[in-house]
Specification:
The complex is a heterodimer. Chain A contains 16 helices and 31 strands. Chain A is an alpha+beta fold. In chain A, the strands form nine sheets. In chain A, strands 5-7-3-15-12-13-14 form a seven-stranded mixed β-sheet. In chain A, strands 9-19-18-17-10 form a five-stranded mixed β-sheet, with helices on both faces. Chain A has a four-stranded mixed β-sheet with strand order 24-23-22-28. In chain A, helix 14 runs parallel beside helix 15. By secondary structure, chain B is of the alpha+beta class. In chain B, the strands form two sheets. In chain B, strands 4-3-5 form a three-stranded antiparallel β-sheet, with helices on one face. A two-stranded antiparallel ribbon of chain B has the order 1-2. In chain B, helix 2 packs across helix 5. The longest helix of chain B is centred in the last third of the chain and has 14 residues. Chain B is globular. Classes of the chains: A alpha+beta, B alpha+beta. The interface between A and B is large, with 33 and 38 residues.
């Protein structure tokens, strides 16, 4: 029976409560360790088409009479368009349409960073569009620029209100500590630089907009575009079959999609809007810089009693302020924690999610701080981490946590540090470092999948997710093969099209496999149940004693042993259809992922060359 | 527009293209050979690599009217044993750079059927993989005849 529940959903460390319909009978969790297909090496199911150049990326979509777009971007970090004249651009050969500020979402009148989009031109070729953009006549009024994130915080120039957090009594605990270490840690801006730049091709077919786009979230694009255009979401079809990398930067539609949609509407032709490599570096997002002022107080034996941090995220002109304080709050057992996070609004390109946003930066700061504490107390850094192991997340149980085992496995690598250090010379200094890792990544509902079993015993998994390049297709095929009891090469996976499959979550936040995987498994189980019911009727036997193993439908007593395709061949063109959805996470528990990394690093102290 | 005769993957094409068009653009937009990718469009990343008379060439910064010699693209190398090697060693993630990697590697193994690691690193230095599959690419080329 379908049951309506309220549950928590986490994406990239941001939580929201959602309504969810779940089935009453969730499948039992698979045991750990390699199974028949899952947990074993497999050839990536789509490796061949990618390697042979057959895989069709958004960049390869060429529609008849398609126009190409070039975008005018601000040369100033903060400036207002006083006057703009598109006429000289429109007069040039090959030009079919142009948009000025506010004529599509993402084209702004007041530019907040170098590279902020203000106008766009569609022409027969990209070269013509680029020439036309150069012909646009703009009067700029330059405005005051703030680039220093700390200055922005001091001025109260924030992307969101600052977020304070405290548990226990930080001040009192710090006063009671035997040792206190304070430090400021900075991390710099990092660019994603996906090889396939951000791009979309938009095409109107009647009142439906087809959006071919390089994205990590086809459903997010669908909703974002529909909302902006004021049309029903199912009038927007979003397709992304293959994607040339994303790394967190391709979760939202952004200006290039809205520009392509609007120009396609005005010109009546399909329109591509693709960022150039230079635009990709300017305007496609980045991992923001951080400034972390951190404090730790500990007893002589290494017990951490107080942790404090003031975190400044240099978010840029827009973007969200990631949870840089997360590791400090959750990695170690400490009753007294005080943090505050500021999202500084500065005139630099916008932050976008980038592989564990906030947590990578926050872990860097925290783990450096812990190392310094270990040095001050003359304790082994690995032992210090074990001593402060968090058995619960501030009293809340973890759904699972194997960090202690990670520390154990790291031991033999960590023990090499003395030997490695002894290899240092006057100029080349060698050393071993370690850090713990903490991040979300448990996934959650909603996500759905369908399975289709044909009479030749082949299976297609249909789910409207995307494969960012992590092997999603392969993982989903493995899960379906495992549940159905068939070899991996019997399974195809169809994904990447909002009009051709059920909702699935985004390819981000380390959440895709744990979100969509269970849905695929449930859909496979549904098909399998039907197959066994068919077998039971055909062979006059209880369905309960039947199973499918390696493609053979078999009974516990061995009396039935028939290849799946033999059982199903009577169906001819009929098909068995299974459906499945992702169930809720356990209530009242913290779902996190953990790890440990040990690295050997050599630094040439004369030249600064670093070898990892 | 200016007339053009070009041999690509053994087929002769008579076409026309505006002066200034790159070989990559012609291959992708006029001939529909989209296996050759354009990732930087300024000769830095190697995704657009094709062979001209067997020599790896960056097609995004090669003007099509200057091309003399036979062009081989990934479409002409689809049955090369390197494809199996790349599949077997899982030398791919997003795959956007991979056709260019295969084209460069194919030129290398033709010149040196048993390349050393140094040979590979030298030859492949111009092909960037943002996903970081370099160790697997190296393994694929080292074991391409297995």
């Amino acid at each position: 029976m379908a049951r309506l529940i309220r549950t928590e959903k986490e994406v990239e460390g941001r939580f929201e409560e959602v309504w969810l319909v779940v089935e009453e009978d969730p499948l039992e969790q698979w045991p750990a360790g390699p199974l028949a297909v899952v947990g074993r090496d497999a050839v990536r199911v789509d490796a061949r088409e990618r390697d042979r150049g057959e895989a069709r990326y958004t960049a390869d979509i060429q529609l008849p009479s398609m126009l190409h777009t070039a975008v005018l971007r601000s040369p100033y970090a903060h400036a207002r368009v006083k006057r703009i004249d598109l006429a000289p651009a429109l007069a040039l050969p090959g030009v079919h349409g142009a948009l000025g500020p506010e004529e599509a979402k993402g084209l702004v009148r007041e530019a907040g960073y170098v590279g902020h989009a203000v106008a766009a031109v569609a022409a027969d070729t990209f070269g013509q569009a680029r020439r036309a953009v150069k012909a646009i006549d703009v009067d700029w009024e330059k405005l005051e620029v703030v680039l220093d994130p700390e200055e922005a915080v001091a001025r109260g120039q924030l992307t969101i209100p600052s977020e304070p957090y405290e548990r226990g009594d930080f001040e009192r605990a710090l006063a009671s500590a035997d040792a206190v270490v304070e430090g400021t840690y900075r991390t710099s801006v990092v660019l994603h630089n996906s090889l396939e730049t951000h791009q979309a091709v938009c095409e109107w077919v009647g009142d439906t907009l087809n959006v071919y786009i390089s994205t990590q979230y086809i459903w997010g694009i669908r909703d974002g575009v529909a909302q902006e255009l004021g049309i029903p979401a199912d009038k927007v079809r979003v397709v992304c079959e293959y994607m040339g990398g994303g790394f967190g930067s391709k979760n939202s539609p952004d200006e290039y999609t809205f520009v392509a949609a609007e120009l396609a509407k005005r010109t009546g032709r399909p329109v591509r809007c693709a960022l150039t490599r230079r635009e990709e570096n300017m305007a496609a997002g980045n991992r923001n810089l951080t400034i972390q002022k951190l404090t730790v107080g500990a007893l002589r034996d290494g017990t951490i009693v107080a942790l404090g941090g003031e975190f400044v995220n240099g978010v840029g002109f827009s973007g969200w302020s990631a949870m840089t304080e997360g590791p400090m709050q959750m990695l170690y057992a400490c009753e007294n924690v005080r943090t505050v996070r500021h999202g500084a609004k500065i005139n630099t390109p916008p932050m976008k999610a980038f592989r564990a946003p906030g947590f990578v930066e926050g872990t860097f700061g925290l783990e450096c701080l812990v190392d310094e504490l270990a040095a001050k107390l003359n304790l082994d850094p690995l032992e210090l981490r074990r001593k402060n192991y968090a058995g619960t997340n501030n009293g809340k149980q973890f759904s699972s946590k194997n960090l202690m085992e990670c520390y154990e496995r790291a031991e033999k690598h960590w023990e090499r540090r003395h030997e490695v250090r002894a290899r240092s010379t006057d100029t080349w200094k060698h050393g071993v470092g370690m850090a713990s890792q903490i991040w979300f990544g448990g996934g959650g509902p909603p996500s759905y999948a369908w399975t289709r079993v044909t009479s030749d015993g082949r299976i297609t998994v249909v789910t409207a997710m995307q494969d960012i390049g992590t092997g999603t297709r392969t993982v989903m095929a493995q899960i379906a093969a495992e549940e159905l009891g068939v070899p991996l090469d019997r399974v195809e996976v169809a994904l990447g099209d909002t009009a051709r499959g059920p909702y699935a979550t985004l390819s981000a936040g380390s959440s895709t496999t744990p979100s969509v995987g269970p849905a695929v498994r449930a859909a496979a189980a549904d098909a399998k149940r039907q197959i066994l019911e068919i077998a039971a009727q055909r062979y006059h036997i209880e369905a309960g004693v039947l199973d499918i193993k390696d493609g053979i439908v078999c009974s516990a007593d061995g009396n039935v042993s028939t290849p799946l395709e033999t059982l199903l061949e009577i169906l001819e063109n009929a098909q068995i259809l299974g459906t499945g959805g992702r169930g809720p996470n356990p209530t009242g528990m913290t779902v996190l992922t953990f790890g440990v990394q040990v690295v050997e690093v050599a630094v040439d102290v004369e030249t600064g060359e670093v070898r990892v | 527009m200016s007339e053009l005769a070009l041999t690509v993957n053994g087929h002769a094409f008579a076409t026309e293209a505006p002066v200034g068009m790159s070989l990559a653009q012609l291959l992708r937009e006029k001939l529909g050979l989209t296996g050759t990718k354009i990732a930087c469009n300024e000769g830095h990343c190697g995704a657009c690599t094709v062979q001209i008379d067997g020599v790896p060439t960056l097609s995004c910064i090669t003007l099509v009217h200057t091309v003399q010699g036979e062009v081989t693209t990934i479409e002409g190398l689809r049955d090369h044993p390197l494809i199996d090697a790349f599949v077997r060693t899982d030398a791919v993630q997003c795959g956007f750079c991979t056709p260019g990697q295969v084209v460069s590697a194919a030129a290398l193994v033709t010149a040196r059927p048993s390349p050393t690691v140094d040979d590979i690193r030298h030859q492949m230095a111009g092909n960037i993989c943002r996903c970081g599959t370099y160790p697997r690419i190296e393994e694929a080329i080292l074991t391409w005849r297995d």
